[in-house]
Amino acid sequence: SKQSYYQTIYTSGNAPYSGTTVDGITVSNFPGLHVYDVEGNEVTNFKEEDSHFFANYLPSTYVGHYSVDSREVNLFAKLTANFFKSIGAVNNGFLVGVDFKSDGNEGKGSQWNVKTPPLRNVANPDASYRPRSYRDIPYINTLGLFGEYNFQWALGKRALDLQLGLRYDRTSVAGGLACPRINASFDVIPDMLRLHGGWGMAAKMPSLYYLYPQNAYFEYINYNDLAYDWIPENERMIITTTKIVDAQNKDLKIASNEKAEIGFDLSLGKAQLGVTAFQEKLKDGYGMSPKYAPFVYKEYDLDENDDIMLYGTYPILSEYYSPANSFSSRTRGVEFELNVDNIEAIRTSFQFNGQWIRTDTKNSLPLYYDASGAEPYLRQEIGIYSSDRMEGHEQQFVTSLRAIHNIPSIGFVVSVTMQAVWNESNWVTFNNDSIPIGYLSLEDGKANMFSPAFTTRQAVEDAGYGHLLRNVNHASAIKESYSPYFQFNINISKEIGEMARISFFANNLFRSYPRRESKRNPGVYYSLNSPFYFGMELSLKL
């Protein structure tokens, strides 16, 4: 059980806020008042049970405060069975099992006063927000079934190890996914050379944020005479309409990560070398995708007789975000580690390791471009751009050399580490990111794709769709790369009898902050390496 309370002074807070949780309800700042236009049509729209709701226009600056009532419930159960059978030089092991997890919350969630709510996100002019009780969020239930077979065959001094596994996970909303895997190793030269490799898949389960997102709320101002100074202040009125959209994606899939690796372990005297090459592929990674809800926006104003009249009716598209399987990546690299055991003549051992890694990432969803103004009469169609418009790349080669010096007679250990970043770079490759392939209709929000597709921006202009063109900047296509830089760390430890140990450490010992000029933005410099910091640690052994 966790109870929290927050209080903040908000600025630039001007926005409508009614706190209503009924889709399509229209209310004024006078609770229960039915308002009609000059032709006798009702402007407001609410039922008697909702007559306590009222519209409110927040001031520019106000003190907002809210509380959070959280009462987490987490349940976990696991059952496994192990079997073993030895037949001559072959050992067989079997493992089967099932696990279950359920996570939820019985708290009331965030709560606040309708007149002092948290500050809204100003990126969307119509967006609003509401408190959400944690009790209204379904429990996330995850069931896992798994099995594993271990095989070991002794061939003289050599050994062949094989491991086969299969796991099936099923979770709320996202369904299920089966993930197989295999690992194998073999002693090519006993006590000297061992080969190993593996392949497998792993499920990346979605969190609550993706499984049960909060509804998208919109608050539209239909009428507002709060700034009309010729109207008595106690008679000024604002009327708003609340629109609610379910942001849940019931077609969400479980993300999977596929990994393959191969390597060897070599032992020669005091030296042990391990090298592994690997590749990982993430599929159906999670992200938030923009969606657009069509809505008819009605605006009212006063006529020459100060009666409310319908001023305009406009179709609009309101943006919200919904979970999606939008992200994929491919990572490949090589890792190595060389250990040299203690050399007695100098009482020092060495560890040398490093990694070269490259990651390519891609967003598999189309890009939507909206150049509309905030006012409803300025809304336009929304451009659709290809999902294959760009791909990001990152690459790094890092090594670390550590020397560990021991003086056993006085219980003294000194380790010095040199970290070297030999290459660190990132860049983007672009495809078609400047010519739209279609647009979302302002009337119904449906996609209309161009056929045949446009091949030039001028052709888009000539066809009357110039408002769909977005400005592009390909500066990130320039490869940003830094020349090598280094950092030294030190750790000194002293044993105090058999009861205690005291250690002193300092990272970035020489306070090295190399500056590198940006290739994309000449004249802009970046300071590299982590900050210098140091400290002491006392350990007691009881």
Task: Characterise the protein shown here.
The chain has 542 residues and is mainly β. It has two helices and 29 strands. The protein has a 16-stranded antiparallel β-sheet that branches. Strands 2-13-12-7 form a four-stranded antiparallel β-sheet, with no helix packed on it. A four-stranded antiparallel β-sheet has the order 18-19-22-23, with no helix packed on it. Strand 20 (390-407) and strand 21 form a beta hairpin. It is elongated and about 105 Å long. The mean pLDDT is 94.
The secondary-structure class comes to mainly beta
Overall mean confidence score, pLDDT: 94
Strand content: over 45%
Q: Tell me, what's the shape?
A: elongated
Please, what is the oligomeric state? single chain
Largest sheet: 16 strands, antiparallel
Note the main attributes of this structure:
542 residues; mainly beta; four-stranded antiparallel β-sheet; 2 helices
